[in-house]
Amino acid sequence: MKSIDLNVEQLQQMKAHPGFIAALDQSGGSTPGALRLYGIKEGAWTNEDEMFAIVHQMRKRMITSPGFTGERIIGAILFENTMDRDIEGQPTADYLWNVKRVVPFLKVDKGLATEKDGIQLMKPMPGLGALLEEAKSKRIFGTKMRSVIKQANEAGIKNIVNQQFELAAQIIAAELLPIVEPEVDIHCPEKAKAEALLKAAILEKLNQLPAGQLAMLKLTLPEQDNFYADFVKHPKVLRVVALSGGYSREEANDRLRRNHGIIASFSRALAEGLSAQQSDAEFNAMLDKSIQSIFEASNT
Fold first, then answer.
1. Apex CA 81: angle with CA 78 and CA 86, to 5°?
2. 195 part of the active site
3. Among candidate residues 185, 178, 176, the one with its CA nearest the CA of residue 135
4. Do the strands 142-149 and 103-107 form a parallel or antiparallel pair, or are they unpaired?
5. Rounded CA separation 246/172 (Å)
6. What's the rounded Cα separation, in Å, for the pair 211 and 217?
7. What's the whole-model pTM score?
8. Which of 70, 95, 171, 281 is deepest in the core (most CB within 10 A)?
9. Nearest alpha-carbon partner for 144 in 132, 156, 152
10. 218: enclosing H helix or E strand
11. What is the distance between the alpha carbons of residues 271 and 17, in angstroms, rounded to a whole number?
């Protein structure tokens, strides 16, 4: 019975607890950039295994930091390599929940396909079924998958939303909670128009979800404040979260404050200002300040 109770507790936390989601899921392609921002140059590793070991040290330093707890961070998104590693003798997902009371999610996409019709779909995921089984066995609560909208192209945006919800159905069937993330590029020339097309396409799909099924939405902060209010109160949406999308933490927080009921799921904006060269005291103080600013912006 314990795992069922645990899921109920996690579900309740994701639905109602104040706070935000830490996105710790940069994978192969974006890892060198994340490490560079953290003050580690590309020559510091000779192969991918060494690079992932270094990035795990960075993740571990963040997760074990005193300020990183379920009081302000309700969930954390991991990528597969992090899920497969341990923190202080426990699998990462178990450590997150058992020690920190932070609900673990897993990034399941394999990156982006080439741009077509103004969008980038996700690459094919032939191993998704096996990955979802593994995630379930490692007590992951939900998943996240990202695709990107570059242009306000109606056909392209419909394709993105169709792909997201087809995969979401598979994830729900595996008894995990999907975070659907069709990101609108912040440099999209007609960003507001793209957001209007996206909103219509998502609403259609949400309304088709069978009774009892839930999803979360991870969206770019919109041009029009409270534009996604319909999603915040939608019965099929557990929570609406926002990506920082290239905005600085200050701008992302400003935009977030103006969108009531939406919480952060920041990656780069959360790690902004952290560096490998900082002492633990400096690192922990910087991260705590960052967590507090994002927590306050999420709590509107």
1. 85
2. no
3. 176
4. parallel
5. 30
6. 18
7. 0.95
8. 171
9. 132
10. strand 215-220
11. 22
Annotated catalytic residue 218: yes
Distance CA 125, CA 118 (A): 21
Strand partners, 241: 218, 263
Residues in the chain: 300
pLDDT tens, 185-232? 999 999 999 999 999 999 999 999 999 899 999 999 999 999 999 999
Distance CA 23, CA 145 (A): 12
Please name the amino acid found at residue 91: P
State pLDDT tens for residues 10-36: 999 999 999 999 999 876 567 888 899
DSSP characters over 229-278: HHHHT-TTEEEEEEE-TT--HHHHHHHHHTSTT-EEEESHHHHTT--TTS
Between CA 145 and CA 15 the distance in angstroms is: 19
Nearby residues of 110 by Cβ (< 8 Å), 6 or more positions away: 122, 123, 124, 125
For residue 122, what is the DSSP state? B
Contact 75, 14 (CB under 8 A): yes
